[in-house]
Design goal:
Layout (H helix, E strand, L loop, with lengths): L1 E6 L6 H10 L4 E3 H8 L3 H11 L12 H8 L3 H26 L6 E5 L14 E6 L2 H12 L3 H9 L4 H7 L2 E4 L7 H12 L1
Parallel strand pairs: 1-3, 1-4, 2-3, 4-5
């Protein structure tokens, strides 16, 4: 079973593209969603609170995701610490998941990850799909979707590869500017990967 990485900058529309592949019957591992689940594990909570202090915790001892984001997206060393706590067990989970999907005899599966290259997940895939969209449109989408400030969007973008870097590593590209038809592009890639 081929492993396909699906990535793109924040607000590019990669989650939407992943959902289309899923609707086509492709097994999709949503790495970003799975990573968030690790934040509720007691050992991870303890490790992060020890490193960053109790300000990242809610009153009931859970991770306050907004406070954690403010810490890690403004301090590169803090982001590295967070990633080192979560990425190794996440990759183990992905490998286990792929083994389970292999029983389906589908020709390929997808891992959707915002930081596929930054986290070196690309070394665990055979091909890469990059979802591309103009930066100003991506900013507008994230502002609408996440209800955060412009400065917060820019801080998050700074921790991701620039789009030209991503496109240079892409085997396939889905262009997603507003009003561009994505479905025909996705179907074309789907057929190529099935072949």
């Amino acid at each position: 079973m081929l492993r396909i990485g699906l990535t793109g900058g924040i607000g590019s529309g990669k989650s939407t593209v992943a959902k289309v592949f899923s609707a086509l019957g492709v097994p999709v591992f949503y790495a970003d969603n799975e990573a968030k689940k690790f934040l509720s594990r007691p050992n991870i909570i303890q490790e992060l609170a020890h490193q960053f202090g109790n300000t990242i915790l809610t009153a009931d001892g859970q991770i306050n995701k907004a406070n954690l984001a403010n810490v890690v997206f403004n301090d590169p060393a803090a982001l590295v610490f967070l990633n080192n706590a979560i990425h190794p067990p996440l990759l183990q989970q992905f490998d286990t998941w792929v083994a389970q999907q292999s029983q389906l005899a589908f020709p390929y599966c997808i891992i959707e990850a915002a930081i596929l290259f930054e986290a070196h997940f690309n070394t665990h895939v055979d091909k890469v799909i990059v979802v591309s969209a103009p930066k100003y449109e991506r900013v507008e989408r994230v502002l609408r979707r996440d209800q955060i400030s412009y400065e917060q969007v820019v801080a998050r973008m700074k921790n991701q590869w620039e789009e030209p870097q991503l496109l240079a590593q892409a085997d396939f590209v889905v262009k997603n500017p507003n009003h561009e038809m994505m479905l025909p592009q996705i179907i074309k890639i789907h057929h190529a990967l099935q072949a």
